[in-house]
Task: inverse folding
């Protein structure tokens, strides 16, 4: 028997376990998936938790429930990947050999990268919403917060779901208006990039959103430190922004396992061929989802499209054929804009998001790059699709892994 | 759109960033720096080369990453390219500005 091992049972790893369970010849291949966690979190739900739109039970399920029974799930911490020996060392000392390895260990926040960020104000007036604990603590804070300077902030790129902080700012505007206290809250959006929008068509189509919602923009802000005493964030150029409530997206990094194993770059992402998803260092290691360094968005939809491509390439690899399936960087994301509306964007490595109709050219029913109530329903419906179709590797009708250009206004 | 600079016509976007790196040369780099009132020193050039290599490798740029590049620290980076250093430096290097997905 040969052995295929998947590291990480998050969105990408779970999808791969389900795809490969169906596609691999199980008389020849054993499949093992390793993840020390007990819970699977629907991460897009972290955006809704702070505003009391979702409850914790909406976004947490048992990790086991999504792993096929023919796939062995090992719930232990991984100490090291010994890539040269084709083996995994578990914390307890057990060694697991593999013929083929899939790394799906994701990305997570690293607030310790910024001076003062995890200091005395952490989870008092400085919050993240990229972890369950952070989003829950922020929910509790928002329930009783009486207003002041709300600063929504990105430390540095790349981050998971690059639009989430912007969505947070839009939902905050909506939330405080609903609570009849919008006039007590000043919302400032702070980004290291040159604007809230950086692509020409998006800027043109969406610039009105910040102005309409009264959100102040601070761009080109490269954070040097959080000053806990003065409650300010300070940039390297000396600029300082005061906050009463800071909602920040800390630096994102790949898993420390990559550092321990010598497989990561300076942010612990694994150097990966962007089309085939094969690791650059070892031909029997493939990488998927947030763990890669490919220049695609770090998002569940990207992992979903990658999973279909990677499944094909793994089958090619096993048959010693060229890795013919090619990932194009496809991402497809709903963006909440508040007041029960949302946008939809669809793009890839080479095509920026544009307006148009999706998934059927000329018909829709979803409108790209335009606010609509229908898109908001789409975003809410997606949670069901995630738990019931996406994780199980059931194809979503009419949404293919390659981006389509038809029906779009380039 | 077309832009005439250093005796050559180049393609730029609305913000003046070059859209075709193959049109870039050192004279154009110097002229673009001049537009931001910057005179390029050997240290500037070393950093421009670093930025161009990173972009070629499709590795995302950030100010902190440049601080760890071994070429300059962040304070020196701000001294070389005042105000919005990453935006200015990428523009002079003829590469796209760091962007998000929208």
Result:
């Amino acid at each position: 028997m040969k052995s295929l091992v998947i590291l990480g049972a998050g969105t990408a790893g779970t999808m791969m376990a389900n795809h490969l369970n169906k596609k691999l010849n199980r008389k020849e291949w054993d499949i093992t998936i390793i993840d020390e966690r007990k819970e699977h979190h629907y991460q897009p739900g972290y955006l809704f938790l702070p505003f009391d739109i979702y409850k914790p039970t909406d976004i947490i399920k048992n990790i086991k429930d999504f792993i096929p029974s023919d796939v062995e799930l090992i719930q232990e911490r991984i100490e090291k990947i010994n890539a040269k020996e084709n083996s995994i060392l578990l914390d307890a000392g057990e060694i697991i050999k593999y013929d083929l390895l899939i790394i799906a260990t994701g990305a997570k926040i690293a607030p310790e990268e910024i001076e003062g960020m995890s200091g005395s104000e952490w989870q008092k007036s400085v919050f993240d919403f990229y972890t369950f604990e952070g989003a829950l603590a922020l929910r509790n804070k928002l329930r009783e917060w009486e207003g002041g300077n709300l600063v929504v902030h990105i430390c540095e790129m790349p981050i998971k779901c690059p639009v989430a902080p912007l969505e947070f700012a839009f939902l905050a505007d909506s939330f405080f208006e609903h609570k009849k206290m919008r006039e007590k809250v000043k919302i400032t959006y702070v980004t290291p990039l040159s604007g809230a929008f950086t692509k020409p068509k998006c800027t043109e189509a969406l610039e009105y959103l910040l102005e309409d919602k009264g959100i102040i923009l601070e761009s080109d802000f490269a954070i040097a430190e959080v000053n806990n005493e003065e409650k300010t964030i300070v940039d390297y150029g000396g600029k300082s922004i005061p906050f009463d409530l800071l909602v920040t997206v800390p630096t994102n990094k790949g898993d420390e396992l990559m550092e321990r194993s010598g497989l990561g770059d300076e942010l612990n992402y694994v150097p990966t061929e962007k089309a085939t998803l094969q690791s650059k260092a070892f031909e029997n290691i493939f990488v998927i989802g947030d763990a890669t360094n490919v220049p695609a968005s770090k998002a569940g939809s990207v992992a979903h499209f990658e999973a279909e491509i990677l499944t094909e390439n793994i089958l090619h690899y096993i048959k010693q054929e060229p890795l013919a399936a090619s990932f194009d960087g496809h991402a497809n994301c709903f963006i909440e804009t508040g007041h029960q509306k949302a946008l939809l964007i669809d793009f890839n490595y080479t095509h920026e998001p544009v307006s148009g109709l999706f998934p059927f050219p000329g018909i829709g029913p979803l409108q790209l790059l335009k606010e609509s109530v229908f898109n908001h329903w789409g975003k809410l419906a997606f949670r069901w699709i995630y738990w019931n179709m996406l994780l199980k590797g059931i194809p979503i009708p009419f949404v293919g892994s390659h981006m389509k250009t038809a029906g779009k206004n380039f | 759109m077309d832009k005439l600079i250093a005796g050559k016509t180049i393609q730029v976007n609305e913000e003046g960033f070059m859209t075709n790196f193959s049109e870039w040369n050192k004279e154009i780099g110097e002229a673009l720096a001049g537009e931001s009132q910057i005179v390029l020193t050997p240290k500037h050039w070393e950093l421009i080369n670093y930025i161009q290599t990173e972009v070629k490798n499709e590795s995302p740029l950030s100010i902190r990453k440049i601080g760890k590049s071994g070429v300059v620290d962040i304070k020196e980076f701000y001294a070389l390219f005042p105000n919005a250093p990453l935006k200015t430096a990428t523009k002079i290097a003829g590469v796209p500005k760091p962007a998000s997905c929208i």
